[in-house]
Automatic annotation (TrEMBL):
This is Antirepressor. Residues 156-231 form the Peptidase M56 domain. It comes from Chryseobacterium taiwanense. Keywords: Membrane, Transmembrane, Transmembrane helix. It holds the Pfam family Peptidase_M56. CDD domains: M56_BlaR1_MecR1_like (cd07341). It comes from the Bacteria. The chain crosses the membrane at residues 6-23, 35-51, 86-108.
Length: 235
């Protein structure tokens, strides 16, 4: 029962925190703040339900103690307890099996990315591992690894813009967010609010990358350096 109550509290807490985001923060322009608010809202929703009311000293009416004593001394039939235990065991078994499936899928995807690193030639440029690939999903970044699509010309206007976009993802360490979100939504796959938070953070990532990529900033300078290094054959 305690686990069930904990799960319900987590869902309620995450729903309240996400509701505040939708009502007060979503349409604001401080996207960096929104990113960390959503990440910390997950942490808070996981930790807050662990706090017990008994940890705080409060004054209560004596009748409350009498009611608690009656509840604690209430003994339902053994047959009812057996059925309830079977239901809880079955329910948590299903939750656990599905969570393990999603975690396994995430781990498999992670291994596939590391496998890609062995399939394509790597160019190490100023700490960035640059891979030229023919992958359909490219270009994309994973930590300090940038998987580029050969059909996109690097020195074209579109190529430069995409490169700057991916460099922002690398600079701002968006991969860490994605890994945390994948683990959380795998374990708590039944919590719809975590999936909504994941979607919002992904949108924030893309907005931050697009916004900074079009500015005259250090990111642009670094991207231009990466282009120059690439075409000069520097390893």
């Amino acid at each position: 029962m305690e686990v069930l109550f904990y799960i319900l509290k987590v869902i309620i807490c995450s729903g309240v925190l996400l509701g505040y985001y939708y009502l007060s923060l979503k349409d604001k322009t401080f996207h960096h703040y929104n990113r960390f608010y959503l990440l910390f809202s997950i942490l808070i929703s996981l930790l807050l339900p662990l706090i017990k009311l008994e940890d705080f000293t409060i004054e209560v009416n004596q009748n409350i103690y009498m009611l608690i004593d009656k509840v604690q001394n209430f003994n339902p039939s053994e047959n009812t307890n057996t059925h309830e235990n079977l239901y809880y065991t079955a329910a948590f078994s299903v939750l656990g099996i599905v969570s393990v499936y999603f975690l396994g899928k995430f781990i498999y995807g992670t291994f596939k990315i590391y496998e890609l690193k062995t399939q394509f030639e790597r160019e190490n440029i100023e700490g960035i591992n640059f891979y030229r690939t023919d992958l359909t999903d490219a270009p994309f970044s994973y930590f300090k690894n940038l998987f580029w699509k050969n059909s996109i010309t690097l020195n074209s206007e579109i190529g430069k813009q995409i490169l700057k976009h991916e460099m922002v993802h690398i600079e701002q360490k968006h991969t860490f967010d994605k890994i945390i979100l994948e683990i959380i939504t795998s374990v708590f796959w039944f919590n719809p609010f975590y999936h909504l938070i994941k979607r919002e953070i992904n949108l924030i990532h893309e907005y931050l990358a697009d916004k900074k990529a079009v500015k005259q900033s250090d990111t642009k300078a670094f991207a231009q350096m990466l282009l120059a290094s690439h075409f000069s054959g520097v390893e």
